[in-house]
Amino acid sequence: MATVQNKPLLTTNSEISTAEEQQLKRRKFNKKLRRSFKAYLFIAPAFIILVVFHFLPIFYAFFLSLYKRISVVKGIVPPSERFAGFYNYETLFNNGEFWNAFFNTIGYAAGVVIIGLLLALGMALLLDKVQEGRNFYRTAFFLPNVTSLVAVAAVWKVMFTSYSSTALAKPKLDHPGGLLNWIFSGFGLPMQRWLLDERGIFNLIFNDGKQGAIANYDINWLAVVLELGLALLIFGLIIAIGRNIQRPQLERVMGGLGLLLALPIVALWVYLMVVEIVNFVDSPLGSGIVIILLLGAAYWLYIQLPSIRKNWYGWASNYSIAVGIGAVLAVLGNLAKGGQWNGWLSGPSLSMFCIIAIAIWHSLGFNIVILLAGLTNISRELYEAARLDGAQGFAMFWRMTVPLLSPTLFFLLIISTISALQSFNLIYAIFINGGNSTTIPHTISVLATYYYQAAFGGGSDSDVNGFGYGSAIVIFMLIFILSLTLIQQQLLGKRVNYD
Amino acid sequence: MIESTSSKPIAATRTTAFQISSINRWLRKVPLHLLLAVLLLIMLTPFIWMIGMSLKPDAEATPNALDGVSRDLGTLTGFFWPKGGVQLENYSDAWTGNFASSGIKHGFWDAPFTGYYVNSLVAAFGTVIGVLITSTLAAFAFARMDFFGKNILFTFLLATLTIPSEATYLPNLVIVSNLGLTNNLLALIVPWTASVFSIFLLRQFFMSIPQELYEAGQLDGLGELGYLWRIALPLSSAAVLTSALFSFMGSWNSVLWPLIASPGTPTVQLGLKIFISNGDTQTQWNLLMAGSTIAILPIVVLYFFVQRRFIEGIARSGIK
Amino acid sequence: MTKFYTFKRLSALLFVTVILTALLAACGDPTATTAPATTAAPTTTAATTTAAPTTTAATTTAAPATTAAATGSGITINVAGTDVTLKPGGGKIFNPTTPTTITIWSSQRGANHQALLKLADDFKATHSNITLKFDNNNETFSYGDILKKLQAAATAGGLPNLATGYENWVPGFVDSKTILGFNQYISGEYGLTQEVLNDIQPAFLARGIFPQYGNETYLFPFGNSTPVLYYNKDLLEKYNIAVPQTWDDLVKASQNVSKQTSNATAGLVFNPKTVSELVAGMYSQGCKVYDYASKTWFFTDPTCVRHLQIYYDGVKNGYFTASDPTKQNDDQAIFEQQKALFYISSTSSRSFIDSDLAKGLNGAKVFNWNATVLPRATEVKTSVSTLYGGGVLAFKGKTADEDLSTWEVAKFLASTAFTAKWAASSGYAPVTKSALNDQTFKDFLGKNPHNGIPVETIKFATASEPKLGYWQNIRDEFDNSVFALFQDQSGAVTVESTLKKIQGVAAGLSK
To answer: What pLDDT does C49 receive?
Structure first.
């Protein structure tokens, strides 16, 4: 650069400088190229393995998915008369078993990720409070994570042993089955059939498990709810727009207008809900839960009263939108009941719930350790500052801890969603490993186990089995997981607070 | 504490004040510890039952030893622990495959479990060594080197995380058999000798080492490999141990791949199957649990040896 | 300092080398560390496979439905309604000129596996150039595992020459053109002579013949068993109940005992997820289940419905009890604890019941028991049950000589010389009739009265489950639907609706 400045000003300064800069750039480029080669040498071993044994197989699986029942014994390419185009995908998307597995996978992943992360967060907050023995607890909680699921699956099967394998047989007190039923009967709760029960847990809680009580519940109020929900959604949006216009007068006018229209509908809706809940819930336990929930909601509204009074239009819009979304979801859920998957309303099956519980038990330690590290990383001074500002209790947690912990939470969310969607070993260990005759129950078949059964299952003349079909499942899984991860990144990644 | 240091009390009152405050603090923590202990007990219940069952005599070894009518403590302890004395032979019987039905007695060295163990150990250690070599090199390149396509390649790494490993089994089988590795322990090692998680973890650690150390190393004539071996790796021992244990776990606990890839070399997880269904006999629960205990033992022992570093390593993996 | 570093580097290098050598050594020869010792030398020299039997056991030739007629040129067997003729062959022994290794995937475990290894040594005496390699060194394979591995190997390579398996596996491998048909070998130069063909149990041969593939034989007999009714002799005597002959008898006996013990002891214990037991029962009720010619299913036939209804009523009224399907052989455990009078299982369970009782597993105590053929429908004269246990499937090798060697092994496994000893040590029913007169087998029968069960009952096993590739899909549907039936308390799901659903799925797959 110094040489450039020494040149006479008359000469075309810029030309020279660009030439020299280009030379410099080229030199830099060459240097980087040389360094790059070295770096490529360093990453080569890992990348060769990853490409050959992880990346290439995916392309190969896609290639195989275009063929019917295949044999490539003599080489890499299956015989051309086996080519089927997208036939396997067509069969896949028309197969009820596949959609059943797909929705089960989503339910399983949602359960493991949401419940698992909340539990881990709770435990991490507890552990954050203790100083002495923290290492011990941490080490012990992590223990399940290092053990193989095959080895502990048998133990869990025993813990979850049911009182009988058929619901037709009545439970006998001298035959409680496993530890959980023993505890349940001790507390006077009804004994369960855990891993064998394919009925939804909401059905069990609210309707004493009466067959079809929820799944076949003839809900004609759903049409009403749908319309109400849509209407509420629109009013809510009107109010929200009013709020965001930043003109206080217009805001109030629109809020008032929306509320005026929404209030009678909300009243009708609440009335319908109450009537339906009364008709719907048919067990002491279920009624108890509903009463507690309603009381809780009333209490919460009561303590929020000052805030509502201050900002009623904000509350009105938020609640309209929330109720609207809820209603739309409920209707969508019941549309799904027409298909293979019978009713989101009855919730995940009890057997699926048990599997989720075991999966959470297995992964809890990992989540706790990472969250605890995140918590200890938040500096104490920040807490002190917030405390001086008057924050405490839940507000402190919500406004301080959660945002500061968000990178860790986000990391765990991504990691555990991916691993939950791929989950195979647990269900394999519990239901297949035992012997030849066990098949995976309909309500806990997930994509990975469905793939296993379809690809390695019995020989077939019907093209429902085989590796072509299995590969199609795998490709679908991959696209699904990849896009879900991307959506998570897009939706949540931006909200994460990296400081 | 802050008050006691700022003021100047006489020695005697100071100690009592300290004692009282510490006792108070301790007392306040008691419910918390109780809660944690209960949670811990729930978490560890399966292991307690597992070990208890593995020591039960044959007559007691029934999984449903609970009676809903008698709810005394004896019933509960009987569920978890043998009443009629500990039967340690279960472990040797499990190891040598001496079932009620089999009618054959193996010695220690020709016992099936010896074979499973050797296969599993060789596969696991092979995988660990492979993973450590490939990940250290790649992690170093991503942490310290500047090269073309770094970001693209790193995204590629991220993308491989989303590939379900079950999805690769079948294509991998074709690849492995074309490489001539089937029916061979190498089939259980080679495909798993690269780990994206390990690369990430080691990269995190390498990046946290001050740049000056690297430059100083360069001045001293240390090459990249020298720097890695003498400076970077010793400073990232937690990451190395974490990667090693995770790879070990991955290899030791895998089920489906060893089953389809390598018929002649059964691993411990496959071996456990003969305890669950040994012909048409009913499951011998005490032997099954002894076998399961033996199967998880190596990992648990390894884990306890390296747990502090290991947990430190995992904890760091979550922080970007 | 430099010295120290050199030392460190050297030792690290040494360490890595040692590890690598150990790895390579372990990988290069996987059998080195894992092979169980096969020390026992064969005590008897094998009789040549061509040795024709001089006498045939008269008692066992009468097989009710599957009849074989010796026509002089081959035998005619009834396979699911149609007659199939197998032509006889030369009966020579083939010994390849170059050493050949035949790989076998077998599901035999424990003592059975050891016995198989020992008997395989007899094969060496007549076939010096064929080496048998059992890829099951540590006995971890179940039938399910073998199928998975075969499926994988059929796609990716690495198929064995022989594998033990079931008839419904065959179609997939016919599809992928990897399986070897036996017909050309049976009637070839090294095939089965007229005497040998007459000697093999016709039902066993019929099981391996596939009407839908031009009557090709794809499954060769190895060791067969059949479901039988185990009963608790002591309890039957105690409650003064006769051994049931028909299903009606069994239901009455069950109601009787559960009434007398106020539901503490049930009649029949069964695993609610075993399709095989229910299907065998349907055959015994006179239901055809499937017709190959017209591709029709009979699940909604009154005979089939009647059978499931018996189980449903039994469970609902508490005189049948369902075991826990997630625990291996839980039904057997309940029978051994004397909480049920009857238990239906394979004949090969008998030795395991004996050993379980002797060891006192699960708190079981020794009691008197026996087994008999499955009950029949009241209007039917003879009982019918299905064949259990696997046969052998052969896969194409690289050369014609290798395939011939594979055939030699299959032939050996079905020969009297082998099957008599094999049946004596494994408890399967012997493949040939002449094996019943073999001294080893006679001695075995004399040892324990229960050892006669397979021989007495196998003659009724004249049916086999549908030999269709998608039979497994139908089984899965059967499995889930029947299990759901037993869970329904409201009465919304009935026996008829369940079978209708299964029928629908089956018919859909048959199209």
So the answer is: 36
How far apart, in whole angstroms, are the C-alpha atoms of residue C41 and residue C43? 6
Are C135 and B264 within 8 A, CB to CB?
yes
Question: How far, in Å, CA of A365 to CA of A207, rounded?
Answer: 35
Is the Cβ–Cβ distance between C131 and C102 less than 8 Å? yes
Report the phi/psi class of residue A57: left, alpha or beta, with left for phi > 0 and alpha for psi in -120 to 50. alpha
- For C389, phi then psi, to 5°, come to 80, 155
The tokens describing A426, both together, are 């647990």
CB-based contact A255:A247 (threshold 8 Å): no
Which residues of B are less than 8 Å from C27 in CB distance? 122, 184-186, 189
Taking the C-alpha atoms of residue A29 and residue A50, their distance in angstroms, rounded to an integer, is 28
Query: Chain A contacts of C479, Cβ < 8 Å?
Result: 439
| Structure token digits, residue C155 | 């796609």
Residues A427 and A450 sit within 8 Å (Cβ to Cβ): no
What pLDDT sits at residue C232?
Answer: 94
Q: Which two tokens stand for residue A83?
A: 């080519």
Residue of C180 and A166 predicted with greater confidence: C180
User: Alpha carbon of A127 to those of B30, B35, B39: distances in Å?
Assistant: 13, 11, 11
Residue C32's φ and ψ, nearest 5 degrees, are: -60, -40
Q: Is the pLDDT of residue B204 over 90?
A: no
Gap between the Cα atoms of A402 and B213, Å rounded: 36
pLDDT at C501: 92
For residue C429, list its beta bridge partners. C224
What's the CA gap between A72 and A75, in Å, rounded?
5
A-chain residues near C154 (CB < 8 A): 71, 73
Q: Is the pLDDT of residue C311 over 90?
A: yes
Most confident of A122-131, A261-270, B180-189, C410-419: C410-419
pLDDT above 60 (res C290)? yes
CB A58 within 8 A of CB B167: yes
Q: How far apart are CA A5 and CA C429, in angstroms?
A: 103
pLDDT exceeds 70 at position B191: yes
Query: What three-state secondary structure class fits C266?
Result: strand
CA distances (Å), origin A216, targets A203, C85, C129: 11, 55, 68
Residues 6+ apart with CB under 8 A from C238: none
In this complex, do A198 and C469 lie within 8 Å of one another by their Cβ atoms?
Answer: no
Average pLDDT of the residues of chain A: 77
Residue of A nearest to B285 (CA): A154
Judged by CB atoms closer than 8 Å, whether chains meet at B122 and C330 is answered as: no
Return d(Cα C108, Cα B3) in angstroms, integer. Answer: 77
- Contact state of B112 with C138 under an 8 Å Cβ cutoff: yes
The residues facing C137 across adjacent strands are: none
Find the CB nearest B259 among C145, C330, C359.
C145
Cα separation, A423 vs A481, whole angstroms: 12
Amino acid at C115: A
Q: Which value does ipTM take for this structure?
A: 0.87
Cα separation, B257 vs A57, whole angstroms: 14
Q: Which residue has the higher pLDDT, C160 or C362?
A: C160
What is the distance between the alpha carbons of residues C426 and C163, in angstroms, rounded to a whole number?
17
Nearest Cβ partner of B319 from A132, A408, A422? Answer: A408
Residue C180, strand partner residues: C394
pTM: 0.82
Query: H or E element: which one contains A425?
Result: helix A425-427
Whether C303 and C228 have beta carbons less than 8 Å apart is answered as no
Per the CB < 8 A criterion, the answer to whether C161 and C402 are in contact is yes
Give A467's contacts in chain B (Cβ within 8 Å): 170
Euclidean distance between the first and the last CA atom of chain C, given in angstroms as a whole number: 81
User: Which residues 6+ apart lie within 8 Å of C26 measured at CB?
Assistant: B118, B122, B185, C32, C33
Write the pLDDT tens digit of every residue in A202-219.
Answer: 777 776 666 555 545 554
